[in-house]
Design brief:
Radius of gyration: 18 Å
Structural class: mainly alpha
Largest sheet: 2 strands, antiparallel
Order of helices and strands: EEHHHHHHHH
Shape: globular
Number of strands: 2
Number of domains: 1
Strand order of the largest sheet: 1-2
Distance between the termini: 38 Å
Strand content: under 5%
């Protein structure tokens, strides 16, 4: 059987698909399209592309850092992965509920020059949910799958942001709002599962 880095391809592909899909849903570039448009509406096409490209690279580097050093960061602060899972799940759930009720979870502030780093890269693309998902992918599936998932998601994010204007025109305000709320439901489901998995670890094992 074909193996990649000592793992059979038949085992690696389902895990890679799960890791990538979970991370993509949480990063949610489609749901954030209206925010990207509103933040860059006063820029010309070239400037908008430069800002969004910089935001994508910043987000990619940040998640790679967590994929490579996530365990060490947790160990340094004395945090277990299950405690981090519960905390991340609660934060994700708050974001999802706010999205479902208000249609947004963040109000734009700050200067145009800093948009690529804050808030587009952080926290819109790389928020607590994406960081949690990356560390969990590392714990559950290993470093290779975690890294590939990060690269795959941000490759798609880059393509979506390159097409942000035509995609937004195609979806319209109503379509973008619907997608944002559908993604919020999925985020809420992932958040609840994170919390359940984390709490379950601390419960006494049934005899």
């Amino acid at each position: 059987m074909l193996e990649v880095f000592g793992v059979s391809l038949a085992d690696a592909l389902p895990n890679l698909a799960r890791a990538t899909l979970a991370l993509f849903i949480i990063v949610d570039p489609f749901g954030n399209l209206p925010i990207f448009i509103s933040l860059t509406e006063k820029m010309d096409k070239l400037q908008r592309r430069r800002v969004l490209r910089s935001a994508t690279l910043t987000g990619l580097v940040l998640l790679l850092v967590f994929a490579l050093t996530g365990q060490e960061i947790l160990a340094f602060f004395g945090i277990s992965i299950y405690g981090f899972m519960i905390a991340g799940g609660i934060l994700l759930l708050i974001i999802a509920v706010k999205l479902l009720i208000e249609g947004e979870w963040w109000q734009p502030t700050g200067s145009m020059e800093s948009l690529s780093a804050v808030p587009i890269a952080v926290p819109l693309l790389v928020g607590p949910g994406a960081i949690t998902a990356t560390i969990l992918n590392l714990q559950q599936f290993g470093i290779i799958i975690a890294l590939i998932a990060v690269f795959a998601v941000f490759a798609v994010v880059f393509l979506i942001l390159r097409l942000v204007e035509p995609i937004h025109r195609f979806l319209g305000k109503a379509g973008s709002s619907i997608i944002a709320r559908i993604m919020a439901l999925l985020i809420a489901a992932i958040a609840v599962q994170y919390i359940i998995n984390g709490i379950t670890n601390y419960l006494p094992t049934a005899v």
